Amino acid sequence: MMRERPFSAACERNKAPILRELQALLPMPATVLEIGSGSGQHGVHFCSMLADLVWHASDRAENLEGIRAWVSQAALPNLKGPHRLDLMQDPWPDIPIDAVFSANTAHIMHWDAVERMFAGVGRQLSAGGLFLLYGPFSRHGRHNSDSNLAFHRQLQQQDPGMGLRDLDELQALARSCDLALLEVREMPANNRLIVFRRF
């Protein structure tokens, strides 16, 4: 018997704003790999709204069962996976993709995992492919809200390896992985969508 589907309130809140950005940024048809799919809600929502979008969910092994519950119940032909992908040890899915998407992951990863994520994106994408990274980020060493600063401090108290990433550091990392910062889109609740393009 399949387990009850996990539920993320954050995914429920941000799925509509993110969908609008995907519609604006992705030329359709498009095939996207999601890193760190979590509950699986994003893929279900996006694929239900965009028939020309093929979405590959992925996550670490312990989250796959919950994602499968969402994928199975949705029964959408354009929603694939989930693929097992632990950035520190697993090979990336061998699938042709046009873009990579990841939401609310960089601040809970240690920096070496963030580096591996960017390196993998640089390898997987062909020229012109997009990497869309969503979440809370600082910029030029400054947080864009008191709540984000408090969240950063909370994460670092929990684990010094976690914390909000700075856009300047991410941009430098991206360049080393053949990715160029295209734009930064401000999102609700003091989040940002960072858009990189493979060159």
UniProtKB/TrEMBL annotation:
Record-linked InterPro entries: DUF938, SAM-dependent_MTases_sf
Pfam families per record: DUF938
Domain of life where this protein originates: Bacteria
Coiled-coil segments: none
Gene3D superfamilies registered for this protein in UniProt: Vaccinia Virus protein VP39 (3.40.50.150)
Family matches, as SUPFAM superfamilies: S-adenosyl-L-methionine-dependent methyltransferases
Protein name (record): DUF938 domain-containing protein
Organism: Natronospira bacteriovora
